[in-house]
Amino acid sequence: LRLKHVAEVKETSILPMLTVDMENKENGSLDVKNSVENGRPPDPADWAVTDVVNYFRTAGFEEQANAFQEQEIDGKSLLLMTRNDVLTGLSLKLGPALKIYEYHVKPLQTQHLKNNSL
Questions:
Q1: Where does the UniProt annotation place the signal sequence (predicted)?
Q2: What does the alpha-carbon distance between residue 104 and residue 118 come to, in Å, rounded to a whole number?
Q3: What is the pLDDT of residues 43-73, one digit of tens each?
Q4: CA–CA separation, 97 vs 76, rounded Å?
Q5: Is residue 79 classed as helix, strand or coil in its secondary structure?
Q6: Which of 72, 76, 75, 53 is CA-nearest to residue 64?
Q7: pTM for this entry
Q8: Which among 3, 14, 19, 41 is least surrounded, fewest beta carbons within 10 Å?
């Protein structure tokens, strides 16, 4: 009985942490579950150019996604992009470029760093 009780306590303490983690991933970018369902590797560093393009199409940037194709931006390149690269290097309109950087590129970079510094 004692062991069973400990296991139950562990389960309840882990679940809220998972929930918080998923909320963070959904904040401004597609969560990892969606990425896997869409056929992309969970780590953006492993994405091919087509994965990057499909990510931005899925995120609602149909028009802008083509710029990533034209500039041959794969996952590794995406993770290296600066704000200036996104705003000027892709020849995008300023509004969408700001949203792409702030709500997608930056969070993907942050998440990648977190996952790879553990």
A1: none
A2: 22
A3: 999 999 999 999 999 999 999 999 999 999 9
A4: 19
A5: helix
A6: 53
A7: 0.68
A8: 3
